[in-house]
Amino acid sequence: MFPGIRTCWLFRPILMLSCTSYLACFSTGSDTISSGQFLFSNQTIISKEGNFELGFFIPGNSSNCYVGVWYKKIAARTIVWVANRENPIDYSFYSTSFLALQNGSLYIFSNKNNIVWSTSSSSNITTSNTTQAILLDNGNLVLASGIGVIWQSFDYPTDTWLPGGKIGFSRITNATIVLTSWKNKENPAQGLYSLGMDPTSNGEIFIWRNSNKLWRSGGWQAGSFPFMETSISYNFSYNSNDEGKYLVYNGNKSIISRIVIDISGTMRQYFWLPRLQEWTIFKSLPSSLCDIYSSCGAFGYCDISSSPSCSCLPGFEPQFKQDWDLLDFSGGCMRKKPINCATGQTGFLSIPTTRLPAYSESLEVGRAEICEFACSFNCSCSAFSYSSSGGCSLWLGNLLDIKKQQNGSTGGDLYLKLDLSELPAKGHKKSLRVALAASITPAIFISCCFFYCLWRRKYKQKGNIVHHQNLFLLDLSSNRAKDNNGATAKDSRGEVKIESIGLPVFSFSSIVAVTNNFSSENKLGEGGFGPVYKGRLQSGELVAVKRLSKKSGQGFEEFKNETELIAELQHRNLVRILGCCLEQDEKILIYEYMPNKSLDTFLFEPKQEFLDWQQRIHIIDGIAQGLLYLHQYSRIRIVHRDLKASNILLDGDMDPKISDFGLARIFGLNELQANTNRIVGTYGYMSPEYVMEGLFSVKSDVFAFGILVLEIMSGKKNTGHYGSDNMTLIGYAWELWKTDRLLELIDPSLQISSSSNPGRYITIGLLCVQENPADRPTMSDVVAMLRNEHMSLTSPKEPAFTTWRNFLNTSSEGGHFAVCSANDVTISLLEAR
Predict the structure, then answer these.
(1) How far apart are CA 487 and CA 507, in angstroms?
(2) Looking at residue 803, what is its pLDDT?
(3) Does the pTM of the predicted model rise above 0.70?
(4) Catalytic (active-site) positions
């Protein structure tokens, strides 16, 4: 509280008399509040040309009052911005509330001397007494001083997007600018719906209902959006640079217009008709089934002019035919004939004038042929699109939210990857270039391997063989050799034969050479699989070498699982596997080297280095992106099953990478959960349904992610003991959430800016560790919550494992033993609750 303001309240009558001379100017057209001035509930300020007015207002029959901005020249009051939307003032204090500019910030005070809203928490810039609050003629309320604009209402919109305003995402502050609907017509608090730009998309606008996508605009194309017709009355401009991504709504000064996300979740564009003195709706979205986000499911195609509106793309068929017959299209479509990526027998079918699918990957190439070639040789690529203005776009995994554009609407040509047999005759010709390249490349490769083997045999006979790190490559299949009985085939020495693993295979002698014979100086650490060593290839590249320990509970199945799965996955937040070794009864994996080791070394071990706030947020976001790829966007759906701090590796830029896929499992696209009698994982990270019943799903990974979020925020292990009731970290966080003391969980050594919201991350963590899997969000929901700080969060329910309990000691007779990763403590079975 500022002393000057407190004095004003103590001497209210004197204040009213002494302030009358300059407060009167507010009601006669002033557009400015200067430092030390007060604006009371019966006064307003008006923009210079009289377009907008700011003051106190009471919506409808509400018993609450607010400070907001509305159109001055329009008789029916139309609110475009609300300051204290989440902190209303009770009507009984309406007449004695005021707005004050003190020490460079705006404050709204109620009669109880309470600050109900201020701009001070929204700006970290030092201000002075020369600061002024100015209401501009575009409806933007700004705080300006000698150094320029230090705060503006356009950065904190409510439900209305005015010309000159923007929505988007700042890469510098990690903040988003979104519109959020009112809760109802008399309550401007945040409602269920929000309108904004997904930071991962190419300038697309989305509507969310809570964290679920409801509608999207389609990608930005040559200065316009597919969802909006060209108009002289308005246009949009899209900017993407190192500072962020923003979309600006540019209007015509002679026409009054606005865009609103209303309480029903509909985006409406309004124009004011002076002759009729009323607002008219120019555009309303979503307006049909095809406007609803992903209404036809994966690989579904929506055409509003047909009946039914949903159909499958060429080469695809309904995944659940019975549901489609009942007009339930949510299950989407699947390929009639799977693509064999190894053979290269694929081509592309053009699907013209479509709203392109969501979530594309941009590629900077100058020709359509290069774009096509890039998609051909990426097994995860399902389609591509190319335009001279928009460049090359690739879609990996499922294609979502494809719509046929109507006459007059802009769209793009989508090139869908299909097996050659699924293409019409002209399609074969179109793909001849790619097929020819695919057939020639393996032939050249096999020839090189053949001549290399001849060269190696020749020099070995002379005794001059040298240790080459990359001994030989095998084909892309991944089957073990089988004997006539179908059992795993072994050679004369009893070693497992591998027909192919799909990875570069290193000789054991070369592994010995690059690790200096597995010297202790090169040892990086040890996990459930075995020790990990640092190695240096002849090229100078550093690698991490993981060697299966003879004492490890893991074996060939985990080794095979990891080589097969990681070889299929490509994502910046997943560790990259470089090769393997199966020789002399050794099982060895070679990975890219992570100079910053694993996350647990920063969080839990005594260390010189420390993770600051921005690094922790960056790590949480990266882990979420990696899991989202595994669960939703990879060519095969993966459940990791052993997500923990020691399995999150950090590269030189502190980018997180998920590692250790030895316990991971492949899930079918329509598979919700699976059951196992072999409970595997790490104590403290396993979900309750998995521990108790052997049930696992993608929600098992969500549970482990929630634990990681709480550990990253607190710097504490989930396996510790906290509070007087011997609580787990989950229980401790839950207790603090119930008593509104979340900040006590935050690592005390963290320096957090006033604009950050650490309690939001803890709440997200608690949502992920709820006991019932159905209550937990999906990773798609989690990413949306992390990226959109204005998105409202639901209240979490009580999580599982809030207090410590005894564990059953099972014997080998009838008990289920776990093959668990080493991370302090592992378990086989928990006591039922």
Answers:
(1) 26
(2) 64
(3) no
(4) 642
